[in-house]
Amino acid sequence: MSIKIKYLLALSISFIFITQSGFSQSAKLPQIKVSKNQHYFVTEDGKPFFWLGDTGWLTFGKLDRAGVEKYFADRKAKGFNVVQVMVLHNINAVNVYGAKALVDEDVSKPITTPGNNFNNKEEYDYWDHVDFTLDVAQKNGIYLAMVPVWGTNVSKGDKVNKEQAIQYAKFLADRYKNRTNVIWLNGGDTRGNEFQDIWNAIGNTLKTNNPNQLVTFHPFGRTDSSDDYNNASWLDFNMFQSGHKRYDQDTVKTAFKEDNYKFIHRDWNLKPTKPTLDGEPSYEGIPHGLHDTLQPKWTANDVRRYGYWSVFAGGAGYTYGNNAVMQMFRKGDKPAYGNKELWTTAINSLGAGQMIYIKKLMLEFPYLERVPDQSLVANQGEKYDYIVATKGKNYALIYTYTGREIAVNMGKIGGTKVTASWYNPRNGQKTKIGIFDNKGIKKFKPSGIKEDGNDWVLILTSNK
């Protein structure tokens, strides 16, 4: 047989396999690891990885294959590299093709069938659709941060016991052992101090069987994985949910309220040191406080504020969310949280398109040397007037949400002089201000009036 014929035969076989299975054979993504300083993420070859997440929670259950392709292509175009998704929203989970996930709503009994041919309904099961979604995500350079089973299935009733949880976690670990674009979010909007035997069983099983995949815990609103699991051997990084309430809606005296940077400042100093990030701030388009649909909705301004506040405080990344997208709202769906917008249009919401600018800014400078440093700011302020700062050896980044004047304690970075510029978080444009002596207190006033959402980043770079 000639070399040409062998090549054509191999090509045909490959085409038949891809056509029948529907699964792409794109190259694996690099494994994500914790950086040496234990505050950030890097790829396996040591390159900085800034977590820019989206909450596509119901992707596996509500999107068909065309929807999966559309969603991940869009998120790639907007710079997202992580999507947070539920493997099982409920234990009676059924996907868009009518495939059930479990036998008798028992997490220890996943329904799997031989083969994965999409054109054969008897072959293409719930887990094949998860596989397909992982492949599409991989093709688009996106990691899936997957919640094994949403917390309410454990916290409300006796739907999942420890033995079932261990068997289920072992199934997941075995099935996705060779997937480099899988990250695990244990828990799922649930209190970390409850049902710890189950959450520790899932975490330990996932980590023991596949130590290369990162594991964290997605907690209840206004709480942090570090509250209960920072010392757990299975927890690689911390995640908190700053939540959806306004300052005045949160009556718990000890809560950080909207000040999500306070979670980061606390986690930064914990031992053992672990990366941390806001995995669920207020979603764009969701009512303040969630449940009263007559309340104002959170906007692009707010999701930017949460992002810059938490990242400049030392966060290893940030997760954006949108009311319609997180529930993958389709025509005919029963709306939650007052949503009326289809996910197919909501993916183009203003805030979603602006998230890429925080990622680009952070990766523009030496990333792994970055530390939070509030001593840069002589007029820090509080609530929406709070000004947050981060720096490296020869650069500093300072964020104001309200366009408030920034008074800088100079001399905190290298060089006798510094170049100052404004960075616009709404469009990523940079405007040079000038060159200044790197000493004393220098005041910088951004353009526009002082108001919520007139946010700016002051960039200072050393002149060598």
Keywords:
13 helices, 6-stranded antiparallel beta sheet, TIM Barrel, 464 residues, 28% helix, alpha/beta, Immunoglobulin-like, globular
Would you mind describing this structure in some detail?
The protein is α/β, with parallel strands linked by helices. The protein has two domains: 28-364, Glycosidases (TIM Barrel), CATH 3.20.20; 373-463, Immunoglobulin-like, CATH 2.60.40. Helices cover 28% and strands 22% of the residues. The protein is built from 13 helices and 22 strands. Strands 10-9-8-5-4-14 form a six-stranded parallel sheet. A six-stranded antiparallel sheet has the order 15-16-17-22-19-20, with helices on one face. Strand 6 (102-103) and strand 7 form a beta hairpin. The chain is globular and about 70 Å long. Mean pLDDT is 94; it is low at 1-24.
Main β-sheet, in a few words? 6 strands, parallel
Rounded to the nearest angstrom, the radius of gyration is 23 Å
Distance between the termini: 65 Å
Which residues sit in consecutive blocks of at least 5 with pLDDT less than 50? 1-24
Figure out the total of helices. Answer: 13
Shape from CA axes? globular
Give the CATH H-level superfamily of the largest domain.
Glycosidases
What is the CATH first-level class name of the largest domain? Answer: Alpha Beta
How much strand?
Answer: 15-25%
Number of strands: 22
CATH topology of the largest domain: TIM Barrel
Output the strand order for the largest sheet. 10-9-8-5-4-14
Helix content: 25-40%
Mean pLDDT: 94
Which architecture name of the largest domain does CATH use?
Alpha-Beta Barrel
**Domain module count:** 2
Class of secondary structure makeup = alpha/beta
